[in-house]
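Hey, can you fold this one?
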Amino acid sequence: MALVIGGGIAGPTAAMALRKAGIDATIYEAHGPGAEHVGAGFNIATNGLDALAAIGALDATKGLGIPATRISMYNRKARLLGTVATGLPRPGAPDTTTFKRGELFAALAGEAASRGITTEYHRRLVRIEQSDRSVTAHFADGTRASGDVLIGADGVHSATRAYVDPDAPSPRYTGLVSFGGFGRNPGLPPEPGVWKMMFGRRAFFGWFVPDTTQVWWFISVPMDKPLSREEILAEGTGAWVPRLTGLFAGDDVPVEPIVRAQADELIVVGAEYDLPNMRTWARGRVLIIGDAAHRASTSSGQGASMAMEDAVTLGQCLRDIDDPGRAFATLQHLRRPRTDKIVALGAKTASSKAAGPLAAAMRDAFMKLGFRFFYKPESSAWLLRNHIDWDERITPAKA
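Sure. Predicted structure:
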C-alpha cells in the first residue's frame, strides 16, 4: 500500500502508475475537492504526453487541450527573433498541447477515481514516522494513515521534502512574478498552434490565439522580491490590470486589449521558484517526486512533464525491485541527470526574461543569430522525444 501526498499532477499520475504495477495507493490532498483544480494555462510537451500514454491515461485528456506546436519569439519592436518547435512527437502520438491547468487536474483526478483510487481531501501532512516495515503519515486534523511506502508529490513547498532531508535547500526565487488568463479575443487574427512571446522592456508577455473567440496569455514581471499569490489577491486584482498593461508602454504588443478583455478574471500565479541541487530524494520508505524533488522554472515548459515521467518510472521501479530503498535509489539514479539538466535550462531561460537594457540587446542579437544559423529541431530530441516503455524491466542501480 502506498500513501501519495498531493493531488495535483504528480500525485494522481503516480497513483495510477502504482496501480498498474499492482500496488494499491491512496491520495491525500491538503485542500478540498476542486481547490487544486485552479490556475492558468500550461503546456504538456510530447514527452509528458508519452508518459501518460505509458500507463493508459492519455485518453483522459482528449478534448481538453489545444495543440501548441510552435513558439515564436519577438523583441519589443515586434521583430521576429525566431521560431522553435515545442514538441517532437513519435509517429502517431499527439504533439505538445496547451491545457487549462484546472481542466487537466480534474481529468487526471477523475481518471484515477475511475481506476478505484481514493483521494482523501483536507489531509494536510504534518509529520511522518517510519519503521523497518511501514510508514505512517500524520495529518493536521488528527488523523493518520499507514502504508508500505509514502510518495511526496506535494509540490515545490513540499512538507515531505523537509522529512526526507531536513537540510535540503529552500526553493529559489527566479526573480519573476507571473499572471495569466483566458480572455475573449479582442479582434486578433487566429494563429492556431503558435504561442507568441515577447521580451518587453520591463516584462515578458506570451499570448496564444487559437480561434476568433479566445486568447490565452501570461505575463512574467521581474521583481526584486517575491510577491505571493495571496499577497496580490489581498490587494485585489483590479489594481494590477493597469500596472500590467503599463509595463508594456512603448512596446509593440497587444497587451492592453488582451488583458482588459478579462480584467475581472485575472489569474494570479505569483512568485516563480525553482529547486536545484537536492542531495537525495528518499529516506527509507519515503520518496519525493516532481516539483518536490526538482522544481524547474515555468520558463522550461517541462515541470508537469517531468512530474509525469517521475511518476511512471516510479511505478516501474517498485514493480521490478522488491526493496523500497533500492527502488527509490534506482529511480533517482535514472531520473537525476535529466531533471538536473532541465532545471538548469529553466533557470537560464528565466534569467533572460529579467535582463536589463544592455543584456536584453545582447540577448536579442544572439537569439536571432542562433535561430538563423544554429537552431535545429532535432537538437531538442533529448528533451522532447523521451519515451517510456512500460514493459521495459528496471535493473537496480548499483549501491
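The chain has a mean pLDDT of 91. Let me know if you want another pass with a different chain boundary.
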